[in-house]
Write a structure and sequence with these properties.
This protein is an alpha/beta fold. It has two domains: about 170 residues, P-loop containing nucleotide triphosphate hydrolases (Rossmann fold); about 80 residues, no CATH class. About 35% of the residues lie in helices and about 20% in strands. It is built from eleven helices and ten strands. The strands form two sheets. The chain has a six-stranded mixed β-sheet, sandwiched between helices. It has a four-stranded antiparallel β-sheet with strand order 2-1-4-5, covered by helices on one side. The longest helix has 17 residues. The N and C termini lie far apart (about 50 Å). The structure holds adenosine-5'-triphosphate and magnesium ion (MG). The site of adenosine-5'-triphosphate has 12 residues, from strand 2 and helix 1.
Length: about 270
């Protein structure tokens, strides 16, 4: 592809993301009870755990959608705890949501272009789509968007309303929208949810390819096999606490992990 998707790799032993002792409660319910972990540049870190374990809450805390009662979050050695979502996005941390967020009424291309708002620092997405932009700026946006669409296999649908696409393709639109601005850290909340086995396989190769290009990813998913296949390391959350951490080969047979999931099946 002709756009530069490859990330610059800065050699550093500082974790890209460091999360320390996060606590969060909702109306007395302790959703997170002291969660700490690190994510290094260029790795895909998996975060798995049964329903309600607190996975989305962790993403919400990192991205500033929620604030922790206790604990701290550092990004590239700088503390970001309590910053607004917009400030955190500007630092290069982007997320996708557990439920697909497609802007209906907009085409696939427009949906992907919306991801450029961080780079252009335009707060209102309309700015990207109306004619007030300089022609040259606009054409470079479109060039990049087209390259991204091709990379995600969405080019043939570029001008169709995004909501008319099959669900699996809509999930790819959302990923393309996150990747277009070249984030330093991508937080993916259940990107495989609702995908067919074939679409799941395509997602695996897409994620592996993003890793090869140097992207750093926190991957939350219920599809444990997918997470174990794609990730360098995996952390396991149950009832708001990390119960295991390690490479996929060890996580696969960790009795605490098996128990957490068996508990879910019995429930
Ligand atoms: N905004 C909120 N208000 C009240 N309770 C919440 C809120 N967000 C999360 N919770 C509760 O906190 C706990 C952790 O929720 P969270 O969504 O983080 O879990 P999860 O691991 O992402 O689950 P799932 O796998 O079902 O997506 C759950 O008991 C949930 O009901
Ligand atoms: Mg969740």
């Amino acid at each position: 592809m002709h756009c530069s998707l490859r990330k610059q790799t800065k050699a550093s032993s500082t974790p890209l993301l460091k999360v320390e002792n996060l606590h969060k409660s909702f109306r007395g319910l302790k959703a997170l009870k002291g969660v700490s972990f690190e994510l290094y540049r260029g790795e895909i870190l998996g975060l798995i755990g049964p329903n309600g374990a607190g996975k989305t809450t962790i993403i919400n805390l990192i991205t500033g959608f929620l604030r922790p009662e206790e604990g701290a979050i550092w990004f590239e050695g700088e503390e970001i705890t309590g910053l607004d979502p917009e400030e955190i996005a500007k630092k290069g941390i982007l997320r996708t949501f557990q439920h697909v967020q497609i802007f209906s009424g907009l085409s696939v291309l427009e949906n992907v272009l919306l991801g450029l708002t961080r780079k252009t620092e335009r707060k209102i997405w309309h700015d990207l789509l109306n004619t007030s932009l300089q022609k040259r700026e606009e054409s470079s946006f479109y060039e990049r968007a087209e390259a991204i669409l091709a990379y995600f296999g969405l080019k043939k649908w570029a001008s169709l309303p995004a909501e008319s696409l099959p669900y699996g393709e809509q999930r790819r639109v959302v990923l393309a929208r996150a990747v277009i601005s070249n984030p330093d850290l991508l937080l993916l909340d259940e990107p495989a949810a609702g995908l067919s086995p074939q679409e799941g396989k395509e997602l695996v190769s897409l994620l592996k390819n993003l890793k090869e290009k140097g992207f750093s990813i926190l991957l939350v998913d219920h599809d444990v096999e997918l997470v174990l296949e794609v990730c360098d390391r995996v952390i396991v959350l149950a009832f708001g606490e990390l119960i295991a951490e390690g490479p996929p080969s060890l996580i696969r047979k960790d009795p605490r992990v098996l128990e957490a999931y068996l508990g879910e099946e019995n429930a």
